[in-house]
Predict the structure.
Amino acid sequence: LGVAALVDDRAALVPALAAAQFGSGFAALGYLAWRVRRRGGSLAAMGLHARRLPGDLLCGIGGYAMAVPLVGALGALSQRLFENRTDTEPNPIFPLLAASDSGERVWLFLMAAVGAPLMEELFFRGALFAAFRERLRGWPSALLSSAVFASLHPVQD
């Protein structure tokens, strides 16, 4: 939340965070597309196919809908197992949600539910996995990109 230190006006904080996330994400995507094309590759090498996009989106939404009950059940189990732990820090989005009005909550939703997953998928499954796959082939590339993803997403809450 380095942008938070630059924004004095609390009402402008959430839109500034959204602008920083989406702006940097789309700038990175543009740079990545430029680099791929410059080297003679295509976005399909990163797993992006325009004609399959609607089906891929529906598949992703369906997979998410099927995973929600499992995630809820595992969350309840985790809460029971670790209910006496006091050394965990809450997710940083919770204080923002608690102090936000409804317009800011829309921006937070867009950042958390749309922006972050989209940019992470483009990076981890697109660019990083594709780079590992060129060098390692098969399962080692999947395991390595998964390990990098997991190391950047420590368990919270």
